Amino acid sequence: TTKEILSVLKNETSKSDYDRYLKQLIYKKISSDDNIAIFEVPNKYIANWIKSKYSKIIQHCIETIDGTKPTVEIKLTGEKKTKKEILKEQVGKTDVESTILNPSYTFDSFVVGSSNQMAFNASLAVSKKPGIQYNPLFIYGGTGLGKTHLLQAIGNDAIEHGRTIIYVTIEQFMNDFTFAIKNKNMEHFRSKYRKCDVLLIDDIQFLSGKEQTQEEFFHTFNELHNAEKQIVMTSDRLPSQIAGLVDRLKSRFEWGLTADVQIPGLETKIAIIEKKSELNGIHLEREIVNYIATNLDNSIREIEGVLIRINASAALLNQEINLPMVQNLLKEQIKETKENIKLPDIITIVAIELNIKPSDIKSKKRTAIVANARRIVIYLARELTHNSMPDIAKFLGMKDHSSISHNIKKANELIEKDENFKLIIENLKNKIINRG
Ligand code: ADP
Ligand code: MG
């Protein structure tokens, strides 16, 4: 049913893609003799987008539900297509590997910065000499920071070099395993996982508490490791921090190399936005790129969602891509971010970055350094929160709020003419939005 499929799909996709597009999918029917699953969506653009990005994933979801692997067709609501037409479109699209890899997740399309350098270099090293140097490789870090991208880049590279790979999330591994038990087909399961050259397991943290699967994975791991086959895993945390993971797996996961991905700094974020928009064929003015980079949250996935929306608005509503259009598009998202930022956060971060005491900012001191920091705090408080000028004055222990508006005016002037000041502000914004 639609509900079943969507609930599986929800776990396999990003929240923004799911909420905006995928949840509109309506499952129509499966014509079992031709093995076609048909879905409808109300909009042609969305249909094409889902088709190109998600049809294999949807196919896999259906497979995990009932074991069939139908051809997935996404149609416009009410559109008539004959089976013949659908099948004809699919010719030439059949893939050699059953593994779903996103072909755009390559090393080339990955932007390297200090936040992900270590994980990137380790992934490259593993691709050069699989099974030998760092085995297993364990990549960990927050969501949307490029773990899956790197994992699949290793996979895409391995395929290019003629190696057999398996890429699965640990949940798919578990489903496969349960399915094999149910159908008394363990032999097939075992040989499948043990004959690959490179095993790529995504989101291994979900092994937590799954004892039987851990047991099975333990054996898979040992066999592959003994045979010097490469194992790469990703997780949102370190092995030692995965609750309910048996010790022998914890220690094995640390046998090789653990490398983390962190929140990118502003420069890296800008480079990623530029790369992604180039790949999507959109040209964004520098001020728009800066706006997105400094106003959006940590997750690169979220930034990508925004680029897709910009693209969609431009295509569907025939809008020109300019700053007001982007600001308008991001209003809701930024509002959410704003509600989370509190004045003390701003003071703390500005004080740390400018190397002064937080208490100085609220004091009566008038040294140039303190006055400058105070100005920056005032400016950022207006930009990044919903506080009114009197609120800010009160918080800073200032008597009248005319000096607040004066400081804001002055800050705006400086941003206009002082490139250095502007950079400091952008960096601080980035730090405040990504704090925590
Ligand atoms: P994770 O698995 O860590 O949650 P993903 O690998 O799914 O994150 O990354 C989310 C999105 O952000 C993907 O589309 C990915 O291509 C993109 N992304 C993340 N980091 C980078 C990077 N350094 N360069 C280019 N794209 C990136
Ligand atoms: Mg991931």
UniProtKB/TrEMBL annotation:
Belongs to the DnaA family. Domain I is involved in oligomerization and binding regulators, domain II is flexibile and of varying length in different bacteria, domain III forms the AAA+ region, while domain IV binds dsDNA. It is found in: Cytoplasm. One of its GO terms (molecular function) is DNA replication origin binding. Its main location: cytoplasm. This is Chromosomal replication initiator protein DnaA. The keyword Nucleotide-binding applies. GO terms for biological process: DNA replication initiation; regulation of DNA replication. The keyword Repeat does not apply. Residues 1-94 are annotated as: Domain I, interacts with DnaA modulators. Oligomerizes as a right-handed, spiral filament on DNA at oriC. It holds the Pfam family Bac_DnaA_C. Plays an essential role in the initiation and regulation of chromosomal replication. ATP-DnaA binds to the origin of replication (oriC) to initiate formation of the DNA replication initiation complex once per cell cycle. Binds the DnaA box (a 9 base pair repeat at the origin) and separates the double-stranded (ds)DNA. Forms a right-handed helical filament on oriC DNA; dsDNA binds to the exterior of the filament while single-stranded (ss)DNA is stabiized in the filament's interior. Residues 342-411 form the Chromosomal replication initiator DnaA C-terminal domain. PANTHER family: CHROMOSOMAL REPLICATION INITIATOR PROTEIN DNAA (PTHR30050). Keywords: ATP-binding, Cytoplasm, DNA replication, DNA-binding, Lipid-binding, Nucleotide-binding. ATP binds at G144, G146, K147, T148.
